[in-house]
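Technical note accompanying the year-one report. For the benefit of new consortium partners, we illustrate the data format agreed upon in the data management plan: each record pairs a sequence with a structure-token string. No post-processing was applied to the example shown here.
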Amino acid sequence: MDRNADWGRLEADVVGCRACPRLVAWREQVAHDKRAAFRDETYWGRAVPGFGDREARILVLGLAPAAHGANRTGRVFTGDRSGDFLFRSMHRAGLANQPTSVSVDDGLELDNAWVTAAVKCAPPGNQPAVGERDACAPFLARELVLLAELRVVVCLGAFGYDAACRHLGIAHRPRFGHGVEVVLDSGLTLLCSFHPSQQNTFTGRLTEEMLDGVFRRAVELARSRP
């Protein structure tokens, strides 16, 4: 199997996808109207593929691109405060070579981690419809197949947790909560964290120490699994 070719096809399929009319219209409208702070920038305005180490043992799974974050920059969790919070923690855990993620050419590299979203387009109100979630599901399924060394899935938020459980066929699972772990017969572990959205980080529901603890545990699990 030529995994590099498969990764290339997956990325091209994600970027070229126009399956969901509402999401396509929204992402393109945002890219046209722009936010005042970014009015001189060219927005990506397309679906956003995953990013990171293709040999990763740790998958970080979020909800969807932010309208003026990844939908602007073209890289998942890049160019917004959620990404700032996330990559600082990943850097402290030794999974990223730098604590910032501002653009696709900023030099960020991930080690032993792959970051992606369950839905690849920015949705209005950050709320994908069920049909949109399901239409996007095959992309995540392909990522899970290609991540042959995967040992841990860090689920950012209840949406990410639900997506992981759906893809892995986990019908009966613990209720989502920060720090919840689900160990599968395969040895794969789902590790839950509150999402690093401003709604959580600004209110103190998710602190840097809490997220650091999740990534320390993810690294520990990834190293301990054969």
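Partners are asked to follow this layout when depositing records. The mean pLDDT is 96.
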